[in-house]
Write a structure and sequence with these properties.
Structural class: mainly beta
Order of helices and strands: EEEEEEEEEEEEEEEEEEEEEEEEEEEEE
Number of helices: 0
Largest sheet: 5 strands, antiparallel
CATH class: Mainly Beta
Strand content: over 45%
Distance between the termini: 22 Å
Length: about 325
């Protein structure tokens, strides 16, 4: 068996801008996902082929597309890279960011070491209101912010895996939410993070996951565990919306719909109920595009993701690469 046959490649995250659909592929030796490196691909146009636009030896883990369409990447080795024109230096030394097929140029910044153990931040979540206001969450519950001039640590977690930031989303620069794995719900008011009460009794093994932004200014947080759970609220407080017989791993908004990655398919909120709408593939992540949603598939035999586009003649499509 060749060395190549031991290499696992999987699509970890998907994003979309006017320039196309972008997806982050992690490559690693089987059984050693912690050492994965990332590469970025672009899918331009309907039915187009995927082309590599960035190869790197960096341990990329996060992809976020800013409102202006610029790409942001987060690394498990304490780095953030972006195509936004904000003056960061290009990769140097032993760090390779090899651009191909007309891909954009990248600037790279190093995050400050965390204030608990002095470790390089392992980036696990990203979101911003713009290229001059970007939040980064990490393993251990630490949070950082780029304000257009510099990176600062805005929250000190306890360093444990139970506080690892799973998702970051916000309505505006002074209304941002973050969730951590075990019972951690946070709000940022433009100046500081404040912990909010998680209502109700957690289900066995509960892990908070995705955040959905609602038009009325509230948010919905989903949770997975022995049961799925939905929480709804805002900075003044949250209440339990419902419990469901499936893990609600991640959530995406599509118009007035909420769609969930539930491992054994996709589910949708209907009134107070959550119902399975597709059950012929696995899902581990849900990512909002431009009028469509992308679902990543865990442990797929090849890099692939599911696209749900209700305006298409084929609303559900598996794209393989």
């Amino acid at each position: 068996m060749s060395a190549e046959s031991h290499l696992q490649r999987e699509i970890h995250q998907v994003g979309e801008s006017a320039a196309g659909v972008f997806f982050l592929v992690l490559s690693y030796e089987l059984g050693d996902s912690a050492s994965a490196v990332g590469s970025l691909f672009r899918l331009a146009g309907e039915g187009g082929t995927a082309e590599s636009i960035l190869s790197t030896n960096d341990a990329l883990r996060q992809l976020w597309v800013s409102p202006a369409g610029h790409l942001w990447l987060g690394s498990a080795e304490g780095r953030v890279a972006t195509t936004a024109p904000i003056g960061w230096p290009a990769a140097s030394g032993d760090l390779d960011y090899d651009v191909a097929n007309g891909g954009p140029a990248w600037g790279i910044a190093a995050l400050p070491r965390d204030r608990v153990e002095g470790l390089l931040p392992n980036v696990t979540a990203m979101w911003g209101s713009g290229d001059d206001d970007v939040h980064v969450g990490t393993h251990g519950g630490h949070l950082y912010r780029w304000d257009g001039r510099s990176w600062t640590q805005t929250r000190q977690g306890d360093g444990s895996s139970g506080q690892t930031i799973r998702s970051l989303r916000g309505h505006s620069i002074d209304d941002v939410y973050a969730v951590g794995t075990q019972n951690l719900l946070l709000h940022f008011d433009g100046h500081q993070w404040r912990q909010l009460l998680v209502p109700g009794t957690p289900t066995d093994g509960e892990s908070l996951g995705g955040i959905a932004l609602l038009d009325d200014g509230e948010v919905v947080v989903c949770a997975s565990g022995a049961q799925g759970r939905l929480l709804r609220g805002n900075a003044t407080g949250f209440s339990e919306f419902g419990r469901y017989p499936m893990p609600l791993i991640d959530v995406a908004v599509l118009g007035d719909r909420l769609l969930f990655a539930v491992w054994d398919g996709v589910a949708e909120l209907s009134g107070q109920e959550v119902r399975i709408v597709k059950d012929n593939f696995k899902t581990s992540g849900a990512f909002e595009g431009r009028g469509r949603v992308f679902f990543t598939e865990p442990a797929a035999p090849r890099p692939q993701f599911i696209q749900h586009d209700p305006a298409s003649a084929t609303p559900w499509t598996r794209l393989k690469f």
